TrEMBL record:
Transmembrane segments: none annotated. This is Iron complex transport system substrate-binding protein. GO terms for biological process: cellular response to iron ion. Keywords: Signal. The lineage of its organism: Bacteria, Pseudomonadati, Pseudomonadota, Alphaproteobacteria, Sphingomonadales. Pfam families: Peripla_BP_2 (PF01497).
Amino acid sequence: MRRRDVRFMRAFVFASALSLAFGAEVGAAPQRVASLNLCTDELLLMIAAPEQIASVTHLSQSKAESPLWRQAARFRRNDGSLLSVAPLKPDLVLTMGGGARDRVRIAETLGIPTLDLGYPGSMADIETSIRRVAKALGREPQGKRLLARIAMLKASTPQRQPDTIWLGGGGRSVGANSLASEWMALAGFRQRALPSDRVTLEQLISKPPEVLLRSDYRAGEYSGEQRWLNHPLARKAGGARVIPTDGRRWTCMGPAMIAEVERLRKVAR
């Protein structure tokens, strides 16, 4: 971080400390929450009250990246850096794993409250993140409503689980024992185990699945991955039933997946 940025951050922290000291109640729910990650954007937008949201990332305001882009467009955008939200004087910053660790350490040094969530690897992780964010925001009833919807999906999981391949650009798929496969099972699909979680055009023809769950992520773009996905063999997959799915929701595989699972159940009937 450059010297002038450090001076700016120190000045910001001093001003924030005065603001909190004179204007905030101890234990009060945060009122200026900023998110620095597309996946924490999703949690914030689905749990927080609108007046609590100070900023979300530019990615969540992109129609190509987030199904919540219209909702996200109501708030200030940031570039995922702590510096980009500092002028907003957030009283809570949401981050998620990876490079966010460095931001958390800087925020802690400067006295900015943070909630750092781990990358989810299972449905249990998603449920934990929902609980943590809801508690941090003082919005536990809203968190419980999302958890209740997941519980209802689990309790009503379709018994029939046809052989399915989730298909993304370039032949990318998902693991048979992954978070993605858990969401698929709730929708009524059993993800086929594939070497390196990929499938070839030859495999789609020689051993087609019963269902091809085809991601429409960035479907209108011209790229090598999209050319592969638009190949006639990938589009028909040897007579498999092709069901499109909103690929944006599979990026984070968080609570935005609830509505997609509900939709897929209706489509698959």
